[in-house]
Amino acid sequence: MSNGYTSVSFGDEEEDENYENMTEYNLKELTLYAIDCRPSMLEADQNGDIPLLVTLKSIRAIIVDRIDTRPNDQIGIILFGTTEKNNSQDKDHIYILQQIDLIDAPRIKELDLLISNVGLIKDRCGSSDAVFPFSDLLWVCSNSIANPNAKQYIKRIIIITNNDDPTDGNAQYRKTAIQRAKDLQDSRTEIILFGLKENEDAFFDPNLFYGDIVVFPDNDDKQEEKDEFDERIFSSIGNLKDLFDKIKTVQTSARSEFRLPFEIGPNLTIGVRGYNMVLEQKIGAPKYYFAEGEQTQEVKSVTRWKCVDTNEFLTPTDIKKAYSYGGEDVVFTEDDVATIQTVNKPGELRGIVFVGDILIC
């Protein structure tokens, strides 16, 4: 499928922002990291890595990347399995480390402080192996991630833990957690699990509890034919060293190859977007920032045109394009340029023909 548009070069096309006025509707993301803070997550493994510390480093790397690539996304961090509590529902063993909000310098500095001294987490939040209703965690997450403009956001709760059964076999805790997870999924909130193996020989059994809470790629509903454009992110189990790559996959959004309008009928046109599933993701152009107190603001470039004769600033309607032809400059208005650039009408539905009705010679 090809685009039915072409264009003629009229000067610097980067200056002409009005001819490509198709604005993509990018859904923002609300991502809430729920991190296990039990004693085993604070102890170094056989490689000397502390699971909680590696988790915070991975999240920090993602946050820094998001400042440039998706600055309007919001991220929050909740610790569970703590001694202290910090949440509006007053639930035990749940500590909201960072409320879900836009990324800024103070939040990154706070993570840097905790990463430089993981003991601060013990002093501030504590760590406990006490069993508590897992549904309490989901309630706190649900309240934190609630947004009045929910339709404009993709909501995700990412659970990072090395405990395959936080209910410790408690049937009532399991039942209430499953129901609460279902309520979240019905409200279009994804729940994703990154299960960590405590060591190379350890086994994280997803069927003990999380199989009824999150979606794994080998669940029964995935045995059917898979839609290659299904954008669901599946939970996974793995080693601590793979954690950053797993978190990164959640943050990688699909990249479209082309866009074009498709006319279904009079006054009814939809947009068609095509995807190249193996399209290379390249590093974007660098951006500039300036510090204003504790806030880091992106520098926005503004181009303005001034008349040499009158020394007055020009509006877009004052500016025209010219193309040299036969030794003379031919002047075009914006409407003229738009008409020239449009070679033919966009895709149009003329009728429906079934494959069985086509005669193949």
TrEMBL record:
Its main location: nucleus. It holds the Pfam family Ku. InterPro entries: DNA_bd_Ku70/Ku80, Ku70_bridge/pillars_dom_sf, Ku_N, SPOC-like_C_dom_sf, vWFA_dom_sf. Residues 264-346 form the Ku domain. Keywords: ATP-binding, Chromosome, DNA damage, DNA recombination, DNA repair, DNA-binding, Helicase, Hydrolase, Nucleotide-binding, Nucleus, Telomere. One of its GO terms (cellular component) is chromosome, telomeric region. It is found in: Chromosome, Telomere; Nucleus. This is DNA helicase. It comes from Mucor velutinosus.
